């Protein structure tokens, strides 16, 4: 399997983890860390349920990978994530010293690799990470879009129900 095929395979696995986040009513972002051709860590968004702003998929996977390797320095590891990392996650990647990042969908609002900020290209960082964007991009973007579309519909239905109940109780 060539690098492109490997990247697609692992991104598909990250999408499976994003579905776990969605099943927990979290924003569907999944991440995993691969070392020597093996997945050593998995993560998915858990911020809402854990009441922890740092419980992004990338952070969860980096934490687990550090435990798996017995070292926070994740040299020679690749992080796969379905959405472009934010500032916090990009910073954690630099500190963890992963070798490579592969992500699916761009994030125009909070993306800190290519879209909004280019933190990994900041001069003076003590570690450089190579990255590949757009792997299964449309599939990753569709997964996120479907979640937010469903969530907006649920919120709209809840508002309509509340209005109907209020109208019924005032009669």
TrEMBL record:
The active site is at 58 (proton donor). Its EC number is 3.5.4.33. Zn(2+) binds at residues 56, 86, 89. Keywords: Hydrolase, Metal-binding, tRNA processing, Zinc. Binds 1 zinc ion per subunit. The keyword Acetylation does not apply. Transmembrane segments: none annotated. It catalyses: adenosine(34) in tRNA + H2O + H(+) = inosine(34) in tRNA + NH4(+). Its cofactor is Zn(2+). The keyword Protease does not apply. SUPFAM superfamilies: Cytidine deaminase-like. It is an enzyme of class 3 (hydrolase). Residues 5-116 form the CMP/dCMP-type deaminase domain. One of its GO terms (biological process) is tRNA wobble adenosine to inosine editing. NCBIfam families: PRK10860.1. Catalyzes the deamination of adenosine to inosine at the wobble position 34 of tRNA(Arg2). Homodimer. PANTHER family: CYTOSINE DEAMINASE FAMILY MEMBER, TRNA-SPECIFIC ADENOSINE DEAMINASE. This is tRNA-specific adenosine deaminase. It comes from Oceanisphaera profunda. The gene is tadA.
């Amino acid at each position: 399997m060539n690098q492109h095929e490997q990247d697609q395979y692992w991104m598909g696995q990250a999408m499976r983890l994003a579905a776990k986040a969605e099943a927990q009513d979290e924003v569907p972002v999944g991440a995993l860390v691969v070392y020597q051709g093996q997945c050593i860590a998995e993560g998915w968004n858990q911020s809402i349920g854990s009441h922890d702003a740092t419980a992004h998929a990338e952070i969860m996977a980096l934490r687990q990978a550090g435990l798996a390797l017995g070292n926070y320095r994740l040299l020679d590891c690749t992080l796969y994530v379905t959405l472009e990392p934010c500032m916090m996650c990009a910073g954690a990647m630099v500190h963890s010293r992963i070798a490579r990042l592969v992500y699916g969908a761009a994030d125009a609002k909070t993306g800190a690799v290519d879209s909004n900020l280019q933190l990994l290209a900041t001069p003076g960082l003590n570690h450089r990470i190579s990255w590949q964007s757009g792997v299964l991009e449309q599939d990753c973007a569709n997964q996120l879009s479907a979640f937010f579309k469903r969530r907006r519909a649920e919120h709209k239905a809840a508002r309509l129900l509340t209005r109907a109940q209020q109208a019924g109780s005032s009669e």
